[in-house]
Design goal:
Keywords: Thiamine pyrophosphate, Transferase. The protein is of the alpha/beta class and 534 residues long. It is built from 22 helices and 17 strands. β5, α6 and β6 form a beta-alpha-beta unit.
């Protein structure tokens, strides 16, 4: 048995049925081993796209997403999305081919210190030097990716190691892949529960790993059990996230803020007193104790308690303790009403320019008609409209990192993971250009989903900055063309729609869904600044 076979068998034992990859010399033994076991390889056109797809796959399935790339530039191309994966708190395993161990230091083809490149962006980065170690190291990496604050891990695969004889090494047992729980101490759990009971306007803030797509109704059960508002934050816009309505006003009134895995960072205005109730007390629960230092730096004496625990485990413990005699029902109702506030927009006339809001509302009508749905929202100005207006059974967004360009890849992974769902990937025309070649990947793999491009023919986020900071006479470098993304999609085997009038939009979206192919609805819009929460 080769090292590659042990690796593939270990992945299979961990529940991996699909890998996202771009081929290369050093990983051909792994391809061969996956073929033997029936592990599907989704062959992409760019290594970064493979990592983005693995990120979305993990979020939508609960599995560890796996991306497989080759050495040298292959790994280099895959590094950027690791930042997104880490900030979105998603368990992803990046496997990369590497030069042979026997040629270390001799100037081997594509020799580089891969772990030195990936270590700052991952929870674990290792380079096994023996074939027999591949099973154990893969299990360790998967367990690490899942445990504590979820995130990316990396294994470099030297060519001579995957080719070497692994002997009679056994595949690790199921327990080797399992998430390691990290519970609150009993006294800590009781202190937090009592603090919530004692507060008049408590709020629990959770990080992206606890959103509905990944954690189901966990936060709803927590809110009900403790009689407290629970808010999940997963946007770089933070306190101005348009999908959270008047979150800034909510937190400005709260007298107790309990962070369950939500970093006290720029998205939380660094905990600045002027952005929160001046007398609010803070409690931070996090799997990483290093976050306590950050919290204390930003909060000072307002930080009343810090406890080490996996936020998911802590949520389960706190739910079990239940609520006290104090009722927060009216406060919860007020918070829910404020989070539901959205910027109003009129429907517009059929011959008027299509607004970002009108386009997103049309997509939402399609989502509502679906038996099952996934909404993918990329970033940028149009992406913020999409995040504020669209709501589906499951959602994938560009996340706290603010990285853009992954949306088209997320949509492809969603279509493969949820083939019975309607999948809509909403993005601006700037964002669409990053990985548009993956439309061909989608057509080749039969991934049917709808790419909705809000096309204002510019990088609108930067355009708005220039307009605001430098004035209308100093706009430079942000214009794009009227490229026909719809025709390009059709040329690559998909379905294309081009829309310039509002009264054409609903029918175009319906045709795109009915095509049963990867489809692009290229909609010319009147670009506007993103909506903002308050």
């Amino acid at each position: 048995m080769r090292g590659a076979d042990l690796l593939a068998q270990t992945l299979k034992a961990a529940g991996t049925s699909r890998i996202f990859s771009l081929s290369g010399n050093q990983i051909m033994p792994v391809y061969d081993a996956c073929f033997e076991l029936g592990i599907e390889i989704v062959h992409t056109r760019h290594e970064a796209a493979a990592v983005f797809m693995a990120e979305a796959h993990a979020q939508l399935t609960g599995e560890v997403g796996v991306a497989l790339v080759t050495a040298g530039g292959g790994l280099g191309n895959a590094v950027g999305p690791l930042f997104s994966v880490g900030e979105s708190e998603t368990p992803v395993l990046l496997l990369s081919g590497d030069s042979p161990v026997a040629q270390d230091g001799r100037g081997a083809f594509q020799e580089m210190s891969q772990c030195a490149v990936t270590a700052p962006l991952t929870k674990l980065s290792v380079r096994p030097t023996k074939a027999s170690a591949l099973g154990h190291e893969t299990a360790r990496a998967i367990r690490t990716a899942r445990s504590g604050r979820p995130g990316p891990v990396h294994i470099a695969l030297p060519f001579d190691v995957v080719e070497a004889d692994a002997g009679t090494t056994e595949v690790p047992p199921a327990s080797a892949f399992a998430r390691v729980p990290q519970w609150l101490g009993d006294e800590d759990a009781k202190r937090i529960a009592q603090a919530i009971v004692s507060a008049q306007r408590p709020v629990l803030i959770c990080g992206p790993a606890m959103n509905r797509t990944r954690s189901g109704d966990l936060t709803e059960r927590l809110a009900s059990a403790l009689d407290v508002p629970v808010i999940v934050m997963e946007s770089p816009r933070g306190l101005r996230d348009p999908s959270l309505g008047e979150i800034g006003k909510v937190l400005g009134e709260a007298d107790l803020i309990v962070s369950l895995g939500k970093r006290i960072d720029f998205t939380m205005a660094f905990g600045a007193a002027q952005s929160f109730h001046p007398n609010a007390s803070w409690i931070v629960v996090d799997a990483k104790t290093s976050e306590f230092d950050r919290a204390y730096l930003n909060l000072g004496a307002r930080l009343k308690m810090a406890a080490a625990a996996d936020p998911v485990d802590a949520a389960s413990q706190l739910s079990a303790l239940g609520k006290g005699a104090t009722s927060h029902a009216e406060w919860r109702k007020r918070v829910a009403e404020r989070l539901a506030v959205r910027n109003p927009s009129g429907p517009g006339a059929g011959n008027e320019p299509i607004t970002s809001a009108a386009l997103c509302e049309a997509v939402q009508r399609q989502i509502k008609s679906a038996a099952g749905s996934v909404a993918v929202c990329d970033g940028g100005e149009f992406g913020q409209w999409a995040q504020a207006i669209t709501s589906a059974d499951q959602r994938v967004v560009n996340g706290v990192s603010g990285v853009i360009g992954g949306g088209l890849c997320y949509g492809l992974a969603a279509a493969l993971a949820k083939p019975k769902h309607k999948v809509f990937a909403l993005m601006g025309d700037g964002t669409a250009g990053f990985h548009f070649a993956e439309v061909e990947t989608a057509a080749r793999h039969g991934a049917a989903y709808v790419i909705v491009i809000g096309n204002d023919m510019r990088w609108n986020a930067e355009h708005q900055i220039q307009l605001r900071e430098y004035g209308p006479n100093r706009l430079i470098g942000c214009q794009l063309s009227d490229a026909r993304y719809d025709l390009a999609t059709a040329a690559m085997g998909g379905h294309g729609e081009y829309v310039t009038r509002l009264d054409e939009l609903d029918a175009a979206l319906s045709r795109a869904v009915a095509s049963g192919k990867v489809a692009c609805v290229n909609v010319i819009i009147d670009g506007a600044p993103a909506p903002a929460g308050h």
